[in-house]
Design brief:
Elements: H1 12-31, H2 44-59, E1 62-82, E2 85-102, E3 108-111, E4 117-128, E5 170-176
Antiparallel strand pairs: 1-2, 2-3, 2-4, 4-5
């Protein structure tokens, strides 16, 4: 499957790197207990799902851990044009230790903190077919300051939130097996 047949701004290797980075950013945000760190790279549905999980963990004074997180492989399964979006279906194989600890004293509450497990993740990423391109998104939508859109999606000057949906691919769904 060649993504450049649908999107001439990116090739398969670049896209796979982008997917890997979004995946790691999401799981790192969960571990850090602050899903807002990746809000600009995920859909509102994904944000709401993981914000709820993080809020529940925070209320219990717990932290989800994904130690030794890495991506083993990323494959583009299919690319389609649907409802004004380039929709890309991806299988990502990841490995990590999956466990929950107490924030207070870091004692193990559940899971396995000794052995890495392999997970298959089915991801769907979307980009508007009429996307403006990231080069036009180098300024904060709130104050016009230079924006680092790949970092946090939050303007360091005025605090405005930047959503890359108008410019780039965002994670629209994820299922883990």
């Amino acid at each position: 499957m060649n993504i450049s047949e649908y999107d001439n701004t990116i090739d398969n290797a670049q896209f796979k790197t982008k997917v890997d980075n979004i995946f790691v950013m999401l799981f790192t945000s969960i571990m850090q207990g602050d899903i807002s760190r990746c809000k600009h790279k995920i859909s509102d549905n994904i944000y709401a799902k993981y914000e709820s999980i993080v809020n529940d963990l925070n209320a219990k004074n717990q932290r989800q851990m994904y130690d030794e997180l890495n991506v083993s492989s990323t494959e583009i399964d299919d690319v389609k044009i649907e409802d004004g979006y380039i929709v890309v279906y991806v299988t990502l194989i990841s490995k990590y230790m999956d466990y929950i600890v107490s924030k207070e004293d870091f004692t193990l509450i559940s899971g396995d903190n000794n052995n890495r497990i392999m997970k298959t993740n089915k991801l769907v990423l979307k980009k508007k077919t009429d996307a403006e391109g990231l080069k036009s998104a180098r300024r904060c939508p709130g104050c016009g300051a230079p924006a680092d859109v790949s970092n946090t999606g939050i303007c360091e000057y005025c605090g405005a939130s930047f959503n890359t949906e108008k410019y780039d691919y965002i994670l629209d769904s994820i299922e883990t097996y």
